[in-house]
Amino acid sequence: MSAPAAVGGGAAGGRRAAGGRVDGLPVADGRRVRRAMAGLLSAEARAVTGMVGLAALAAAAGLAPPRLLGQIVDAVAAEGAAAVAGVDRLALGIVAATAAQILLTRWTLLVAHRFGERTAARVREQFLDRALGLTPATIERVPAGDLAARGTGDVGAVAATLRDAVPEVFVAATQAVFLLGAVLLVAPVLGAAGLLSLGAAAIAVRWYLRRARAAYLEEGAAGSALADELAATVAGARTVEALGLQGRRLAGGRVAVDRVRRARLRTLFLRSVLFPLVDVSYVLPVVAVLLLGGALHRHAELSLGAVTACALYLRQLAAPLDIILVWMERLQASGAAYARVEGLAAVPPAPAPGTAAPAGDRIEMTGVWYAYDGGPDVLRGVDLTVRPGERLAVVGVSGAGKSTLVRLLAGVDRPRAGTVTVGGVPVADLPPGLLRRQLVLVTQEHHVFRDSLRDNLRLAAPRATDTHLRAALATVGVNWLDELPAGLDTDLGRHPLDGARAQQVALARVVLANPHTVLLDEATALLDPRTARGAERALAAVLRERTVVVVAHRLQTARDADRVAVLDAGRVVELGSHDELVAAGGTYAALWRSWHGDGAR
Ligand SMILES: Nc1ncnc2c1ncn2[C@@H]1O[C@H](COP(=O)(O)OP(=O)(O)OP(=O)(O)O)[C@@H](O)[C@H]1O
């Protein structure tokens, strides 16, 4: 017996790590997996009925040859050479039944393979739909490698199993049931003896199954952790190099590789115990039937033909059982993979966007509480109104909740309690197209897709003409369009932009989206001073005549704002103009004095 390759990929997921971050996506429990499988079967009810019917016919045809052979034995034993004519007829029957079995089995497999292909496609589509339905907040919070490992390794394993293992196992299982049924019908005593001696195989399989799910889940989790570790190292390669973190990353990589090795050794151990035990237990039923059948025949309680037929049935049983056991390991591994694929269904879907259109530009936070993934509250009862046209700076020490506050204003996250509305409509309920005409969040993370410059810009305004696109680029100071090999058609995957140009593209998108409010969070914080000056100029052009909420890292920004909101441990503790707050002599005044020297205004 040969074991198919073990299937890797994915984390057991759903655990919480320190800081309240979700360490991986959830894994579906046994009930959810069974329900999902039933759903897949009922979607293919006709094919399943056809498979069952054909497999039953094939298995029934397979029962004839041993029975006919038994009759030949009986005929020869009773009549000797005189039985020749009858034997010929019976032999012809054996040939016909065998041919029928082969043809019907091929037909069943064809139907089953087609069923497997269609179902595999369905699983892929479901996964893709669910992955696309995840909220940005969920995607941000799960390890990058986990979703990728599920979408590739796990979905691939499930699809391969549906295509290869399921048809083979289905046909083999039907055959096994028919063979056992036949023995029980021909000689119930021999059937019972055969069943009992198959108990050894059952014990070995039970031992294996008890351990296999956890072992394969761990193997998947270890694969995901390794993918994650590698992805993090590659994504942060420059930082790793700059800070001399190679040693630490290597050590992390070694731990992840070691975990994969240990997980694989564990599943290998399980297989290497199971298979030899099972091989031995195939022989036991035949031995039992021959011994018991021989004794019964001697006491004239059973014909020689019946003993022969039963021994042959049980001997034949080894083939389907072997197929089932070879694939069982794959089924087990894919069961774990499917649990991880179905785990996506347990993630709460993004709520359907509402239909109400905002009436006006006023943004209001009322009684807003927010916590990351059940962690401690990061915003605690925030009330804040952003007046149309104003520039509002948000200041506070690191960890006060400034970034969280603008993420909620931008509709990226929903408050745990309270409301965040624009023009009276909850921002998180706005469909993306409408939302980006109201508010746009600009951070230091901006993504340029491997696509043309035109399509990269049109993400913000799908119907914008080239004239609009060029005007938007000009607004943010782009003077390098002509340097690109194909202007707006340039493929930015093949001709990547540097950080400063990518930032300009991101800002041009804001111009195209034309929101009434821009939220800024560290938009230029990571740029070098020369690039940052250019970006600041571009930003100033983007912000003109818009409402602006800016997370102010330099108090200079706060001084230039119309109003300043001071956040402290998730609460707005002061709100007013720079001058008012300095005069009030509170937290902001202290910050300002320490930053600017005593007596400053
Ligand atoms: N994704 C996250 N998951 C869990 N906790 C988070 C997450 N992001 C932020 N936090 C926590 O929420 C709190 C507020 O963080 P936030 O980033 O909003 O503060 P901040 O005032 O913007 O800080 P900084 O100026 O350092 O960016 C912090 O305690 C932080 O550790």
From TrEMBL:
<keyword id="KW-0812">Transmembrane</keyword>
<feature type="domain" description="ABC transmembrane type-1">
    <location>
        <begin position="50"/>
        <end position="333"/>
    </location>
</feature>
<dbReference type="InterPro" id="IPR039421">
    <property type="entry name" value="Type_1_exporter"/>
</dbReference>
<dbReference type="InterPro" id="IPR011527">
    <property type="entry name" value="ABC1_TM_dom"/>
</dbReference>
<dbReference type="Pfam" id="PF00664">
    <property type="entry name" value="ABC_membrane"/>
</dbReference>
<keyword id="KW-0472">Membrane</keyword>
<dbReference type="GO" id="GO:0005524">
    <property type="term" value="F:ATP binding"/>
</dbReference>
<keyword id="KW-0813">Transport</keyword>
<feature type="transmembrane region" description="Helical">
    <location>
        <begin position="268"/>
        <end position="292"/>
    </location>
</feature>
<feature type="domain" description="ABC transporter">
    <location>
        <begin position="363"/>
        <end position="594"/>
    </location>
</feature>
<dbReference type="GO" id="GO:0015421">
    <property type="term" value="F:ABC-type oligopeptide transporter activity"/>
</dbReference>
<protein>
    <submittedName>
        <fullName>ATP-binding cassette subfamily C protein</fullName>
    </submittedName>
</protein>
<keyword id="KW-1133">Transmembrane helix</keyword>
<dbReference type="InterPro" id="IPR027417">
    <property type="entry name" value="P-loop_NTPase"/>
</dbReference>
<dbReference type="GO" id="GO:0005886">
    <property type="term" value="C:plasma membrane"/>
</dbReference>
<keyword id="KW-1003">Cell membrane</keyword>
<keyword id="KW-0067">ATP-binding</keyword>
<keyword id="KW-0547">Nucleotide-binding</keyword>
<dbReference type="GO" id="GO:0016887">
    <property type="term" value="F:ATP hydrolysis activity"/>
</dbReference>
<dbReference type="InterPro" id="IPR003439">
    <property type="entry name" value="ABC_transporter-like_ATP-bd"/>
</dbReference>
<feature type="transmembrane region" description="Helical">
    <location>
        <begin position="176"/>
        <end position="209"/>
    </location>
</feature>
<dbReference type="InterPro" id="IPR003593">
    <property type="entry name" value="AAA+_ATPase"/>
</dbReference>
<dbReference type="Pfam" id="PF00005">
    <property type="entry name" value="ABC_tran"/>
</dbReference>
<dbReference type="InterPro" id="IPR036640">
    <property type="entry name" value="ABC1_TM_sf"/>
</dbReference>
<keyword id="KW-0997">Cell inner membrane</keyword>
